[in-house]
Amino acid sequence: MGILTDPSAGQGKITKIIIKYYSKITILMYVGGVIWFCLLAYTPLNAGTYFSENALLPGLVKSEFRDESSAKQYFDELQDEMKMYENSIPYPWILAKFQQIGLDTYTHNFTLNYPLGKANIKYSGKNVYGILRAARAGSTESLVMSVPYRPPSNIHPSTASSVAIMLAFAKHANRQKYWSKDIIFLITEHEQLGVQAWLEAYHNVVCGHQGILDHGDLRGRGGAIQAAINLEFQVVNIGRMDIKVEGLNGQLPNLDLFNLATRMCAKEGIMHSFKNRENRNYRQPMKDWSYAFETMMYMVFTQATGIPNGNHGLFHRFGIQALTLEGVSDHRSRHGNFLSTGRVLESIFRSLNNLLERFHQSYFFYLLPSSDRFISIGLYIPSVCLIAGALFLKACGKWFRLYQYLVNLSEQGR
């Protein structure tokens, strides 16, 4: 550590080389790191996605979901209920449907004490959730299916179709006996605020300053949450399923969960995309690299903001692997109806039901140039080290040169 604190302890060849050439070396390291990072989007330099967790058994189960008519009925009834609840969740209707299905049904109240401004402003909200108790286990583990409810007055697209398919899947799942994990069906209010309050109440912790978010209490709980799938279906007939993974402060779910979602969408014939960009294979290498590089940079920019791009992003801070499935219309593809969407959800949750332990096999740090290619941390961290090392070398060179200047001044003063 002497060379970092006292330059006189390192007046050897290395110090002289740094003083003389540090500007050129810094430029080479920085440019080399940027070029390395950019080239990683080129297909031969990255890897194809694969499953590390064999216990998931993806795609090996036969889909049994047939409740398309129930989903349509729920959707039509919800449309009528939404007209009477312009600014809130239709609690009585949702609670009644959960109870009719046979779930343990609860409500959750929370309050936000607005921290900015002089006025003592409070915002209240209420979440609704139902728990399907596992028939083959003692509520030691659970899975979550969540939907952010958006009333007609909300500026964001409606999620009524998400609520409908959730209820239809809950009705189907309640008739099955193979579940080894509880399934929690959660409908939240006020977007990410409702999810954060529910997670804090579920784990009985406070994230952030005390007294800002009064998360309230939960009267019912399941087991330890292993994974969560957040639904944001904007239309009934889904043309494309966009998969969102970026969470709070750039956290990502285990890559196996992302691979599971893409595999199940492909199995049911629903087009899937990442960053609203479907996979394309161009014959021209330059064009192929450019398209993949843009997709990768969109992911980097989203992570750099530190803001989750879906309600799933708040699960990560609790060690829960989660992602968002956003169903949007796309005239270029075959539309997927409630039947195919329900089968995708059934396949995902039956695969998660097979898990014997928490996600740990695959990657938690990665970049995605497409939904079927990935860049592991072992490939992109050298470029990060080169860029960061250039800054470190620049600082060392400045420090050595400053010390040399001070020594020369003292010698001239004598």
Outline the biggest β-sheet. Answer: 9 strands, mixed
Summarize the amount of helix as a percent range: 40-55%
Q: Taking Cα atoms only, what radius of gyration do you get, to the nearest Å?
A: 26 Å
**Number of helical segments with 4 or more residues:** 10
Spans where pLDDT lies below 50 across 5 or more residues:
none
Strand content is 15-25%
Strand segment tally: 12
Give your account of this protein's structure.
The protein has 414 residues and is an alpha/beta fold. The chain is 41% helix and 18% strand. The protein is built from ten helices and twelve strands. The chain has helices spanning 2-5, 13-39, 68-82, 91-101, 160-174, 192-203, 255-267, 285-305, 338-353, 377-413, and strands at residues 47-48, 104-113, 122-132, 141-148, 182-188, 213-214, 224-233, 240-244, 271-274, 321-328, 366-370, 373-376. The strands form two sheets. It has a nine-stranded mixed sheet, with helices on both faces. The protein has a three-stranded antiparallel sheet with strand order 1-12-11. Helix 7 links the parallel strand 8 (240-244) and strand 9. Helix 5 packs across helix 9 (338-353) and helix 7 runs antiparallel to helix 9 (338-353). The mean pLDDT is 91.
